[in-house]
Amino acid sequence: MAYQEVLTALADPTRRHILESLRNKPLTVGQLSVAQPVSRPAVSQHLKVLQQAGLVNVETAGTRRFYSVRREGLGELRTYLDGYWSDVLAAYGAEIERRFGDENAGTDH
User: Fold this and answer.
1) Which residues are CB-neighbours of 23 under 8 A, at least 6 positions away?
2) What fold does the segment set 1-109 form as a domain?
């Protein structure tokens, strides 16, 4: 999945809360609905968005469907954000070199 889909899915606070609820163990829609400020059908719709974004897995056990976090679903988002961090570090290094590079030019290390 592209990081844009993950960002869009996580933009909704209810979906973030659902994802956090799944952090420690798989849960059913009914179990998730108890802790959510929205109806059970709404939780199902939010889970569908999270699943389409690659953030949750669903496993069927008899008549129950268990949802769990798909940790690798955050990989592209992490890569995207790491790119910003790399840019920030590079800019910081360039600024340090600009400010202090001339001071160290004549010294032996």
Assistant:
1) 69
2) Arc Repressor Mutant, subunit A (1.10.10)
